[in-house]
Amino acid sequence: MNTLPEARDLNLCLCHSCGLACDMSNEPHTCERCDAPLHRRKTNSLTRTWAYLLAALVFYIPANLLPVMNTSMFGSGADSTIIGGVLEFWEHGAWDIALIIFIASIAVPGVKFVALSLLLVTAQRGSLWARKERSQLYRFVELIGYWSMLDVIVVALVAALVKFQALGDIEPRAGILFFGMVVVLTMLSAMSFDPRLIWDNRQTEEVMDAIASH
Questions:
Q1: Which of 15, 85, 127, 139 sees the fewest Cβ atoms within 10 Å?
Q2: Which structural domain, as residue segments, surrounds residue 53?
Q3: Which residues does 157 contact at the CB level (< 8 Å), separation at least 6?
Q4: What is the pLDDT of residue 113?
Q5: CA gap 54, 178 in Å, rounded
């Protein structure tokens, strides 16, 4: 089976800013149309992605163990972790807020950790397994990354509502800072991963195609 040429075979590089296919024969550093920096590939993609992901995992532990907010109602106050906050909102009938916080704080980071780890391990091994699906998985990780700060916003809105209605007082705690770091680091991890690594192992692919053709 004939393999279609890639941009590197034609000595071209796509500008990430304006989309121009730039001729790399003279190794230009910037795009001739918009003057944006040109990169054939993301530098040290796997190393940087692993570093950000492992750092996010480290911060994820105190983000779940430390309280994220302190709620004072009618003179009595209590600290709440992420899980404690979810249960508290649920018990008070605010199941929609509880569900939003659970999805954004527990489910989304968990999915990102598993998905990025899968992408990294398979890319490092040069795996040909489900490459189209892995590319779709990477785009999904990018998509859900935009909603990772949703629970922080919800907590801020609830705090503002409580104070506005003079029902009590809500103050942030250290856990929210660690969770914010988790969100930033997982986003940087996803941004550092080069999805073209999924499709890189052409030599192995040609061997597999040759075997399949006989």
A1: 139
A2: 44-213
A3: none
A4: 93
A5: 14
Residue 2 three-state SS: coil
Residues 181 and 102 in one domain: yes
Burial 86-104 (b: 16+ CB within 10 A, else e): bebbbeeebeebbebbbbb
pLDDT along the chain (214 residues), means of 10: 66 79 82 83 88 94 82 63 78 78 82 93 88 91 74 63 56 79 89 86 48 45
Strand 76-80 with 69-73, pairing:
antiparallel
If asked whether residues 178 and 119 sit together in one domain, one would say yes
Please give the backbone phi and psi of residue 119, each rounded to the nearest 5 degrees, phi first. -65, -40
On whether both 133 and 32 belong to a single domain, the answer is no
Q: Are 34 and 102 in the same domain?
A: no
Whole-angstrom Cα distance, residue 70 to residue 103? 21
Distances in Å between the Cα of 22 and the Cα atoms of 13, 26, 38, 98 are: 5, 10, 9, 49
Q: Give the pLDDT of residue 56.
A: 93
If asked whether residues 209 and 150 sit together in one domain, one would say yes
